[in-house]
Design goal:
two-stranded antiparallel ribbon, 4 strands, mainly beta
Length: 81
């Protein structure tokens, strides 16, 4: 997904959503993505996870101007009981 910020309007949101990722006890999953946050009114990038109990946890957040080039990020999810 690529969302150029120079074409967005205030309040624009993009969402990339997957189905259930099975992480049985003792297993892990990894989300790998690249982002570029440089420019006027950059906003906030959030990575949220919905747990099996329905609660939503913010796993990663960056706001404002962060980098002048692309940066790769890994978010590791570890299963629990």
């Amino acid at each position: 997904m690529f969302l150029p910020s120079n074409y967005k309007r205030t309040g624009t949101k993009a969402r990339l959503q997957t189905g259930l990722i099975d992480t049985t006890f003792g297993s892990t999953a990894c989300l790998r993505f690249s982002y570029h946050m440089y420019g006027v009114d950059m906003g906030t990038l959030n990575v949220k996870v919905k747990n099996q109990d329905g609660s939503i946890v913010n796993s990663f957040t960056k706001s404002g101007i962060v980098f002048t080039s692309y940066y790769s990020m890994y978010v590791i999810f570890i299963a629990s009981n």
